Amino acid sequence: MTALETLAGTATAGTLYGIGVGPGDVRYLTLRAAGLVGAVDVVAYFAKKGRVGNARRIVAPLLVEGRDERRFEYPLTDEVLADSTRYQSSMGEFYRDMAGQLAGLLRQGRSVGLLAEGDPFFYGSFMHMWWRLAPDFPVEVVPGVTGMSGCWTRANLPITWGNDTLAVLPGTLDEERLVERLRLSDAAVIMKVGRNLAKVRRAVDAAGLLSRAVYVERGTMQDERIVPLAECTAATGAYFAMVLIAGQGRRL
């Protein structure tokens, strides 16, 4: 047994592992996550049509040729509004089918590592498998470095000081609610920016926070981009992007 296996532990037959793979840089995986990527019988991951899959890309240096992999391709991502009937119906069917396939592998006694970008329990697709499969199968969730943690670190932006409160907001909220929530918080992270960039920028400006806001695109990844939000005049941003507004609390 290698030193990594000794520290990280091994995989148990018939168990589903939600493996948090962090924000983008493979070096930010936990020891447990890195160990399981090599130990499970099957590595599973989500992917957008025509794409490798971001979680799969992150762990690529840890995978050896011939690994048993399962690719689960989203029928939709951001092409349709998430609260639309079409989106909910299509994604619900996708998750049900996926859960059935994973259940089949688990019944065979195989260990499955389902990769999750960032942390599995933080806006993660893994959660749709967790609530479907946890009642019937052993499930272990391996926490990962969140995307927002990776982004504020790369932006060299301490996010909260002293008694600062932090709000984590999805950019899919309507503009009025975004402004309201921003005005109530000392610091904020706005996720799911993408096609909502123009709306998010207006909301941040209306809340009087534009001068403090930082736009981070593909944080910790090779093509990372970090700029003041005030300089982002485009209508849309990257899929992997967020806005950070640091608190200004007690500094000693």
Give an account of the 3D structure:
This protein is an alpha/beta fold and 252 residues long. 32% of the residues lie in helices and 19% in strands. It has a five-stranded parallel beta sheet, with helices on both faces. A five-stranded mixed beta sheet has the order 6-7-10-8-9, with helices on both faces. Strand 8 and strand 9 form a beta hairpin. Helix 4 packs across helix 5. The longest helix is centred in the middle third of the chain and has 23 residues. The radius of gyration is 19 Å and the shape is globular. The mean pLDDT is 94.
Q: Strand order within the widest sheet?
A: 3-2-4-1-5
Taking all residues together, what is the mean pLDDT?
94
Give the number of DSSP strands: 10
Kindly name the structural category. alpha/beta
Content of β-strand: 15-25%
Total of DSSP H or I helical runs spanning 4+ residues: 8
Q: How would you sum up the major sheet?
A: 5 strands, parallel
Radius of gyration: 19 Å
Distance between the termini: 47 Å
General form: globular
Order of helices and strands: HEHEHEHEHEHEHEHEEE
Helix content: 25-40%
Low-confidence regions: none
